[in-house]
From TrEMBL:
Classification via NCBIfam families: Tim44_TimA_adap
Transmembrane segment boundaries: 6-26
Protein origin, superkingdom: Bacteria
Chain ranges of the Tim44-like domain: 76-227
Gene3D superfamilies registered for this protein in UniProt: 3.10.450.240
Protein source organism: Gluconacetobacter diazotrophicus (strain ATCC 49037 / DSM 5601 / CCUG 37298 / CIP 103539 / LMG 7603 / PAl5)
Lineage: Bacteria, Pseudomonadati, Pseudomonadota, Alphaproteobacteria, Acetobacterales
SMART domains, alphabetized: Tim44 (SM00978)
Protein name: Putative transporter protein
Keyword list, A-Z: Membrane, Transmembrane, Transmembrane helix
């Protein structure tokens, strides 16, 4: 079987962030010009900053993305093996391939204001925050430009199996290093956030899904992200 990254249905048991939508919208608007995700209320000093600007790189590098999977004997490797025991089609490298595609889709969907696509790729709480930030941006007349020029590496850095609301859920944290152009301009075309130069970003995205063959349409969805 091929691992499901189609995102065709919402999982019913979702991670709770404990934040009101208005705060999330304000927080996202302040950072999503340069970084996409739902950040669980860090202090002001922890606001993510973009990495170094990469001068002179006009085209994506002709290199393959590096997939880093923990060794089987490690704690995280053992959790991944436990996930595979419950989901026979789960293969860590294939999971990362799906994450790579989802990362590009989510970044571009947020910039384009494509709430329909985001709704199918995010958990309900994450989607609410993204949608609020998009509506706020539209009301201000701001325009987001985003290009994912390259994804240098994806690494599984943590994983867990959790019992919530009578169901079993898997959670996997992935560190994503990418080269992006991310620029937000006001209604007059003046830059208000980000840059039109290629910049390196390092993010930690958390994906979740319910486990069990009896759950129809279960799929991995973005639940949270922060600067890595």
């Amino acid at each position: 079987m091929v691992m499901d990254f189609s995102f065709s249905h919402f999982p019913f048991d979702l991670v709770l962030f404990g934040l009101v939508a208005a705060f999330l919208a304000l927080r996202l608007r302040s950072i999503l010009g340069t970084r996409v995700g739902v950040e669980p209320a860090p202090p002001p000093s922890a606001v993510p900053r973009p990495g170094p600007v990469i001068e002179g790189r006009a085209e994506p590098p002709a290199t393959l993305t590096d997939y880093d999977v923990p060794a089987p004997e490690t704690r995280v490797g053992q959790v991944l093996a436990a996930i595979a025991q419950q989901e026979r089609d789960f293969v860590p490298a294939q999971f990362l391939k799906g994450v790579e595609a989802a990362f590009r889709q989510i970044v571009l969907a947020f910039a384009a204001g494509d709430v329909a696509m985001l709704r199918e790729r995010l958990t309900a709480n994450a989607f609410s925050a993204f949608e609020a930030a998009i509506r706020s941006r539209e009301q201000s007349g701001e325009i987001q430009k985003a290009e994912v020029r390259a994804i240098a590496s994806l690494a599984i850095v943590d994983a867990a199996i959790e019992e919530r609301d009578g169901a079993t859920h898997a959670r996997i944290d992935v560190r994503i290093v990418s080269d992006q152009i991310s620029l937000t301009s006001d209604k007059d075309g003046h830059p208000v956030a980000g840059t039109d130069a290629v910049t390196e970003f390092s993010d930690l995205w958390t994906f979740e899904r319910p486990l069990g063959v009896a759950i129809s349409g279960a799929a991995w969805r973005l639940a949270a992200s922060r600067s890595a």
